Amino acid sequence: MTVTCDSAGAGVLRLPSGRLVRGRGLRYPLPAGPAPAFAVYLLGRRPPPVAWEARWLRWPDFRLPADRAQARTLLHEAWGRAATDRVEVACGGGRGRTGTALACLAVLDGVPADEAVAHVRRNYHPRAVETPWQRRYVERFDQG
Questions:
Q1: CA 120 to CA 103: how far, in whole Å?
Q2: What are phi and psi of 22, to 5 degrees?
Q3: Beta strands in the chain, from DSSP E residues, in sequence order
Q4: Is this model's pTM higher than 0.90 or not?
Q5: SS3 category, 24
Q6: For 81, what's the count of Cα atoms within 13 Å in the CB-facing half-sphere?
Q7: pLDDT at 9 (0 to 100)
Q8: DSSP, res 26
Q9: Mean pLDDT in residue range 54-63
Q10: Which of 131, 133, 100 is nearest to 117 (CA)?
């Protein structure tokens, strides 16, 4: 049974394959609708517990993931889970780190790395991916 996100929901990015991933800012209330089944939280410190399965990736604000191998593993897991589960990716504000992670998911989904930031800005938030180094991270994400 497929339990993916509602494509009309707030912050939901549709990837070219049809997979849906909700991005959001944790400083804001949980959007209406079903809770995620799986989430990746991109924060400088451990997030509070949630009622669903979640992973924490240490990722300070305006920076890059502290452990890039772990980032790759968790983003692959999120992308894989999005085929059948409601998946959420979130940071504090929902734009920089979240946008960067969503752009990496777009790369995993087949969007060329040099087009992934534009894809996320067009389909998720116009100011997603906030820093030049986050943009470079996305552009190099498919290089391992």
A1: 6
A2: -95, 125
A3: 12-14, 20-25, 38-43, 53-58, 87-91
A4: yes
A5: strand
A6: 22
A7: 67
A8: T
A9: 96
A10: 100
